[in-house]
Amino acid sequence: MNNTEDGLNKRKGYLHQDYLFFHLRDQESQTFSMHYHDFHKLILFIEGSVTYCIEGKYYHLRPGDLLLVPNNALHKPLIHHEQPYERIVLWLNPHLHIVSEDCMQCFYTSCNQSHLLRLTTKNQKHFRHLLEQLETSQKDNLFAHELLETVHLTQLLIWLNRYILEANHSVTSPDIVYHPRITQLIDYININLEKPLPISELATTFYLSKHYLMHFFKTETGYSLHQYIQKKRLIKASHLLQDGIPPSEVYISCGFTDYSQFARAFKKEFHTTPKAYLLQYKN
């Protein structure tokens, strides 16, 4: 499928199918903004000069590298030079009903250390073959083609999970660049979204001045600290609403002190009200 990935993803990226497959090759340099998706994203990098930023970590890609971007992770590619950028991209619904939920563990297991897997030449060929099988089965209309498609997708995910679990595939510097203090701060924010999280207290917790922390975070992530916290709170709120929790409880659970402020921020982010969003998922 050679649609431009960004063209199908004007907003945040909602995937109503089980998965989508893209083989993309861009000739011209592009600029992407930091964004997130409700779906998992798998990227096999083939050609180009690209650094991928995911949650404050910068991954310098080499041909054959595999990136696993879990749903709701803030990310963007930084494309260097005007040379072709080629990659195979798989969007996967986290609630994929055609395979076991265990098959999605690869997006979380690998991310304890890194979002990047550097495949050996042999494993690159094998994984590419699995992707080609999936692409072929997606295009045909022969007998039981949907069943075959499910088999190939399941086979691909099983191989990927086994590959991650069977050995340590972490990639070291200089191809992964990040500041440990930033990743610690991001982890702290993500597990404390229900708390007030004033910047002054974060600065004290991480032994930094308030001004330096704000400048440092913006430089490393591309987001202001306030923007990042609010974005993550709204993502959490959307999932709580999807689970059927009423907006009057959600805004408190996500660290908002005022419902009207929460409702305005939610509508700006998702272009609908919290109540309408809740009803959409109830139906």
TrEMBL record:
<dbReference type="Pfam" id="PF02311">
    <property type="entry name" value="AraC_binding"/>
</dbReference>
<dbReference type="InterPro" id="IPR014710">
    <property type="entry name" value="RmlC-like_jellyroll"/>
</dbReference>
<dbReference type="InterPro" id="IPR018060">
    <property type="entry name" value="HTH_AraC"/>
</dbReference>
<keyword id="KW-0804">Transcription</keyword>
<keyword id="KW-0805">Transcription regulation</keyword>
<dbReference type="GO" id="GO:0003700">
    <property type="term" value="F:DNA-binding transcription factor activity"/>
</dbReference>
<feature type="domain" description="HTH araC/xylS-type">
    <location>
        <begin position="183"/>
        <end position="280"/>
    </location>
</feature>
<dbReference type="Pfam" id="PF12833">
    <property type="entry name" value="HTH_18"/>
</dbReference>
<protein>
    <submittedName>
        <fullName>Transcriptional regulator, AraC family</fullName>
    </submittedName>
</protein>
<keyword id="KW-0238">DNA-binding</keyword>
<dbReference type="InterPro" id="IPR009057">
    <property type="entry name" value="Homeodomain-like_sf"/>
</dbReference>
<dbReference type="GO" id="GO:0043565">
    <property type="term" value="F:sequence-specific DNA binding"/>
</dbReference>
<dbReference type="InterPro" id="IPR003313">
    <property type="entry name" value="AraC-bd"/>
</dbReference>
<dbReference type="InterPro" id="IPR037923">
    <property type="entry name" value="HTH-like"/>
</dbReference>
